[in-house]
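Long-time lurker, first post. I've been practising inverse folding by hand and with some scripts of my own, and I keep getting stuck on stretches where the structure tokens seem ambiguous. Below is the full token string for one chain I'm working on. Before anyone asks, I'm not after the true native sequence, just a reasonable design that respects the backbone. If someone could post their per-position residues I'd love to compare against what I wrote down in my notebook.
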């Protein structure tokens, strides 16, 4: 059985790590490179760095950030934000990133998933999906959660898989930053629907939340930010708790 992964996520705006609730009310959480290095030392399995304002500001993710991160960590990391083409990705991978995350650009032009998978391999492509429940449907949002789209969570995730995405990073906007637990029902449905790994994101508030994401949500990995950035729970403590509950985890 493959081990489950714990992944701290660093949302970056103006060179700093920030965190909010339901994608708004951002507050400073520190230097992204220093935080990433600390998480690697604590035993994080991977890291995700998202330049959350790159798409809105119509600029590319800084390759220099990837270089700085790569110098200080020894675990895989994903970089996302402002990626619109194969040309945008090559400098990031050359700088040391192991994967790239795409979101709004893929919604606008789904062929981007195919192009990146063909150029670099599916294992390098993470399709990030931000969604919230509107009526009875989970509606996909773009531009850092600011714009609702006509895409629906499950059909878009399935299309992303078929186009060549290697992983799905699903963030429930309704749960983001609330510390009330992950969106277990849609998470479980995604994992039943797809054959590629699904990363749970949005809502981690306790060690039980991680446990439920793995047991009931069937997630392959659990991503968290607030808990780790503000020192509420340490990664080794989470991992030992999961191990004690028979979750296959690297400690």
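-- Answer (accepted) --
I ran through it position by position. Result:
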């Amino acid at each position: 059985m493959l081990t489950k992964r714990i992944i701290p996520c660093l949302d970056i705006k103006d060179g700093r790590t920030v965190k909010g609730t339901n994608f708004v009310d951002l507050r400073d959480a520190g230097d992204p490179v220093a935080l990433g290095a600390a998480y690697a030392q604590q035993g994080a399995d991977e890291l995700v760095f998202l330049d959350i304002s790159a798409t809105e500001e119509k600029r590319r993710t800084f390759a220099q950030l990837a270089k700085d991160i790569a110098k200080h960590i020894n675990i895989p990391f994903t970089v996302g934000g402002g990626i619109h083409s194969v040309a945008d990705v090559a400098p990031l991978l050359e700088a040391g990133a192991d994967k790239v995350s795409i979101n709004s650009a893929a919604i606008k032009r789904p062929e981007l998933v195919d192009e990146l998978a063909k150029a670099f391999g599916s294992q390098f492509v993470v399709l990030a999906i931000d969604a919230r429940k509107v009526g009875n449907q989970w509606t996909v949002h773009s531009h850092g959660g600011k714009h609702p789209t006509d895409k629906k969570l499950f059909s878009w995730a399935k299309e992303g898989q078929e186009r060549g995405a290697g992983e799905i990073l699903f963030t429930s906007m309704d749960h983001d930053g609330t510390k009330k637990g992950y969106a277990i029902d849609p998470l479980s449905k995604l994992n039943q629907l797809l054959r590629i790994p699904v990363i749970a994101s949005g809502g981690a508030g306790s060690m039980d939340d991680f446990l439920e994401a793995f047991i009931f949500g069937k997630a392959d990995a659990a991503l968290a930010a607030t808990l780790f950035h503000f020192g509420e729970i340490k990664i080794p403590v989470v991992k030992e708790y999961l191990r004690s509950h028979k979750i296959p985890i690297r400690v």
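A couple of notes from the structure itself: Residues 50 and 125 are 14 Å apart (CA to CA). Confidence is low (pLDDT under 50) at residues 22-26, 55-60. Happy to go over any region you disagree with.
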